[in-house]
Amino acid sequence: MSALESPTETLRSAAKLMREKAQAASPGPWHQMCMGSEGCSVINDGHLRERKHVSFSGRKEWKADHADAEYIAGMSPVLGLALADLLDQTAWMVEMDADLAGRTGVDETLAVARAFLGEAEGARR
């Protein structure tokens, strides 16, 4: 969050960006599919003949490729849209009652927003 941005502005900025990215991505839900020595793919939820690859984890080590693919599949646009709604809802609640800003739940939601925006300590994009 920039020094000029309030917690509600940070939450709304992250929600807006998260929603834009989720809507631009291949529709979810996503699933992982590992093919042994060929690596792992993340595919969107379609008919078997219409599988569309979203991501490919490349043959570094089966266990790591499988974990990467499972994680990426779990972070599909479906989750991104739900998180964006949560961020917007939290911003609305804090606007209605500013005393909520430093309470449990709000701080953690703000940390999610900051991490998504790449503002968390040590965050990478």
Helical residues, percent: 40-55%
Taking all Cα atoms into account, the compactness measure Rg is: 17 Å
**What is the H-and-E element order?**
HEEEHHH
- What is the 3D form? elongated
Low-confidence stretches: none
> Termini distance?
15 Å
| Overall pLDDT | 82
Strand count: 3
Indicate the structural class: alpha+beta
Strand order of the largest sheet: 1-2-3
Strand percentage, roughly?
5-15%
In total, the number of domains comes to 2
The biggest beta sheet is recorded as:
3 strands, antiparallel
Helix count?
Answer: 4
Q: What would your notes on this structure say?
A:
With 125 residues, the protein is an alpha+beta fold. 50% of the residues lie in helices and 12% in strands. It contains 4 helices and 3 strands. Strands 1-2-3 form a 3-stranded antiparallel sheet, covered by helices on one side. Strand 2 (40-44) and strand 3 (53-57) form a beta hairpin. The longest helix has 20 residues, at 77-96. It is elongated.
What order do the helices and strands come in, and which of them pair?
Layout: H1 7-24, E1 30-34, E2 40-44, E3 53-57, H2 62-74, H3 77-96, H4 106-116
Helix pairs in contact: 1-3, 1-4, 3-4
